[in-house]
From TrEMBL:
Domain ABC transporter: 20-257
Domain of life according to the entry: Bacteria
Gene Ontology cellular component terms for the protein in this record: membrane protein complex; plasma membrane
Name of this protein: Peptide ABC transporter ATP-binding protein
CDD domains to which the protein is assigned, alphabetical: ABC_MJ0796_LolCDE_FtsE
Keywords: ATP-binding, Nucleotide-binding, Transport
Pfam families: ABC_tran
Organism, as annotated: Streptomyces albireticuli
GO terms for MF: ATP binding; ATP hydrolysis activity; transmembrane transporter activity
Ranges that cross the membrane: none
Length: 261
């Protein structure tokens, strides 16, 4: 057992390999009076086959952390590692290859090409890279996200939830070592959002995927194995085996602590 800054005990993490790690990771924007510290020496690990939610108030550094760890943004200090590969210092070519081969990313916007079918959108990154998809894995992914009967449909023939499922499948299809999701249910109604969150959880439990999701929603966070809380660019707390009520309660404690500090 470990004890959080709020005195709450949480279960020890499972002993599995680390899929991604941030070590004293910092990100600073601007200089002088316009200087903003988005990440302040953050150290955190994301383990294989685990679903982590990242929560915190607006401007706490949630999206910045995932963007830096996914190689979508540069860092100002410290290091970000995917598997055994440190992102800091990689050339643009090697960073592009790393993102293509080892990282999946799901954005709040679906980012689907309207002229392509669902299947063509799913395999597009591999097609661009000149790689043939692993058919057995692709079939498993498509089945997991429930798209088997919709593969020939274009985005305008799919619901919002189905479009986001295509985006999830696209991120999974290349067998990434880790998948980052930035508010993946932000543009969805509650039913479609629950479907996508269920698919993300199933990808961890059934496919052994590693998922790191930014969210502001305690219900969405309850689908994860653990929740990491950020404030002012720092990790301030962690909760394992979360429920929506437990997450909400922890956020209230966090808010109260912030007001009295």
């Amino acid at each position: 057992m470990t004890t959080t800054p709020f005195g709450v005990q949480t279960a020890a993490p499972r002993t599995t390999a680390v899929a991604a790690r941030a070590t004293e990771l910092s990100k600073v924007y601007g200089q002088g009076e316009t200087r903003v510290v988005a990440l302040d020496a953050v150290s955190v690990e994301f383990r294989q086959a685990e679903f982590t939610a990242i929560m915190g108030p607006s401007g706490s550094g949630k999206s910045t952390l995932t963007h830096c760890m996914a190689g979508l943004d540069s860092v100002s200090g410290g290091s970000a590692t995917i598997g055994d590969t440190e992102l800091t210092g990689l050339t643009d070519k090697k960073l592009t290859r790393l993102r293509r081969d080892k990282i999946g990313f799901i954005f709040q916007a679906f980012n689907l090409l309207p002229t392509l079918t669902a299947l063509e959108n799913i395999t597009l990154p591999m097609d661009i890279a000149g790689r043939k998809p692993d058919k057995q894995w692709l079939d498993m992914v498509v089945d997991t996200v429930g798209l088997s009967g919709r593969l020939k449909h274009r985005p305008n023939q799919l619901s919002g939830g189905q479009q986001q499922r295509v985006a999830v499948a696209r991120a999974l299809a290349g067998k990434p070592e880790i998948m980052f999701a930035d508010e993946p249910t932000g543009n969805l109604d509650s039913r479609s959002g629950a479907e996508v969150l269920g698919f993300l959880r199933n990808s961890v439990r059934e496919l052994g995927q590693t998922v790191v999701m930014v969210t502001h929603d305690p219900v969405a966070a309850s689908y994860a194995d653990r929740v990491v809380f950020l404030a002012d660019g720092r990790i301030v707390d962690e909760l394992r085996r979360p429920t929506a009520d437990a997450v909400l309660d922890r956020m209230k404690r966090f808010d109260a602590k912030g007001r009295t500090s």
